[in-house]
Amino acid sequence: MTRRQILHALACAYLALVLSLNTVPLCAQAPALVEAPAPTRYAPAIEFARTLVQAMMEESGTPGMSVAVGIDGEIVWSEGFGFADVEDRAPVWEETKFRIGSVSKSMTAAAVGLLYEQGLLDLDAPVQRYVPSFPEKRWPITTRLVAGHLAGVRHYRDDEAETLSKRYNTVLEGLEIFQDDTLLFEPGTRYEYSSYGWNLISAVVEGASGESFLAYMQEHVFEPLGMHHTVADHTDSIIPHRTRFYERTEDGHVLNAPYVDNSYKWAGGGFLSTPEDLVRFGTAHLGDELLKRETIEMLWTSQRTNDGAETNYGIGWRVDRDGGRVSQAHHSGGSVGGRTFLLILPQERAVAAMVGNRSQAPPHWAPTLMILEAFLDPEALTAEASGPDIAGIYECTALVEGEEPSSGTVEIRGSAAGYWGREVWDDERGRIIYSSSRREATTLISVDQDGVLSRTRFTSVERNRLAGEQIQGGRRGEVSCSRR
What whole-number distance in Å separates Cα of residue 314 and Cα of residue 328? Predict the structure, then answer.
């Protein structure tokens, strides 16, 4: 039995427990997954990534996940884990389609960029130029403001359950949900995330192009990039390889997610895709295959509020800069029965995408970044341990800029050759699943009971004190520990 099959069997046994099945063990009849031969250079990175994904699935009770990595224009790894359909024991394959949620906004941003390049869309004209039926507001709003979440268009409300199950035949019908509401604030004065705003942008795309939104996306974005597994999540259609969607109860049981019809928000979060297609899409932003370089730079330039404060959100992308250059462009996606993360490191020409088929599944910025960095330097994963012995029990404090400090206890067992142990941060419990000991830094990766990964990198080691950096979910901060 290969290591992959062993890990698959272990994950299956765990899923059988969390799903409380009283019948045949969950994976007893699941077909063995066939692996494509992996390039030798990336073998350590693949094993590392599998360790992370398996741990996240086991702790979070996520039935299925899938990951793909692209380096310098080539998909170097793609693999599915667990089940697309728990009841039928259907495994996740590379072609399995997941709900990608708000990563749909990044795809729609490509359509905005194309129309801008062709002179068909003025980003700073009132949206009514392209959507005459949209009511005028107290202040004018533009496509650029809406795309940057600066226009004051509201987000979802808790009393909109009927919206989630109703079918909308056109993009304009979907605007009826919010188009008569007043703006939350004067456009440009503050940033407030709005998926409904991107529904309005899909109507702008229709008005500027003269084509229906879904047809435009298919012909001008998906087909040119070979994204053959990216489609709208039509509930009335047979869509091959579409996963089923799940949720987890407070007591750990995994159930089918509630029914939703995403026809009201194609652009805001209604597409299905695969990690491979997402990597193809991200890779297109490293050259001029789809958009001109200056257009991509515009999409990746943080917008600002009227007082000059950067929002770190451009047009359909969250962006981080280092030394004036974009260091990361990314977007997350949360759906009923799905979660997605797409990450691009432009300077390294690297892209990674991670998806899961459970609401609040583990795909986040931190694990996606960890996996991508491993593929950029796979040799580092096999380097001989050369760091100091830091085994012991520590009282720690983590500080993320702009937030209250969090405290924790970190118990590190083992030796530099391989640490293990547990962490407790503000009552969130985790276990160490990976360690790397080097002269320049000792790295610990842990997973908590929700499948959230955190990475602590100690760069300063004294006799009874450790200090360094910690990333968790979408946060990065400083950490310091004192030996108990």
Answer: 12
Note the pLDDT tens digit of each residue in 301-352.
999 999 999 999 999 999 999 988 999 999 999 999 999 999 999 999 999 9
Say yes or no to pLDDT of 394 above 70: yes
Give the end-to-end CA distance of the chain in Å, rounded to a whole number. 43
- Cα–Cα distance measured from residue 233 to residue 13, given in angstroms and rounded to the nearest whole number: 31
Catalytic residue among 60, 66, 78, 102: 102
Task: Tell me the β-bridge partners of 401.
Answer: none
Burial readout 178-187 (b: 16 or more C-beta within 10 A, e: otherwise):
bbeeeeeeeb
Residue 64 neighbours by CB under 8 Å, 6+ apart: 80, 81, 82, 83, 84, 91, 92, 96, 243, 356, 357
Over range 384-392, report the average pLDDT. 94
pLDDT digit string (tens) for 398-430?
Answer: 998 767 888 999 999 999 999 999 999 887 899
Please, what's the b/e burial string for 312-338 (b: 16 or more CB within 10 A of its CB; e: otherwise)?
A: ebbbbbbbeeeeeebebbbbbbbbbbb
Where does the pLDDT of residue 1 fall: very low under 50, low under 70, confident under 90, or very high at 90 and above?
very low
Q: How far apart are CA 340 and CA 102, in angstroms?
A: 8
Mean pLDDT of 378-400: 93
How remote is the C-alpha of 143 from its chain's centroid? Answer: 24
* DSSP states of 90-105: EEP-TT-BEE-TTHHH
- The pair of structure tokens assigned to 358 is 């459970």
The CA distances from residue 47 to 14, 43, 44, 165, in Å, are: 20, 6, 5, 41
The pLDDT value recorded for residue 84 is 98
Q: Which amino acid is at 392?
A: G
- Helix, strand, coil % over all residues of the chain, rounded to 5: 30, 30, 40
Q: Are 386 and 439 in contact (CB under 8 A)?
A: yes
Q: Which two tokens stand for residue 108?
A: 């729609």
DSSP letter for each residue of 6-51: HHHHHHHHHHHHHTT--SS-TTTTPPPPPPPPPPGGGHHHHHHHHH
Regarding pTM above 0.85, the answer is yes
> Can 446 be counted among the known catalytic residues?
no
DSSP helix/strand/coil, 327: strand
**Sequence letter at residue 379:** E
Residue partners of 317: CB distance under 8 A and separation at least 6:
106, 109, 299, 300, 329, 330, 331
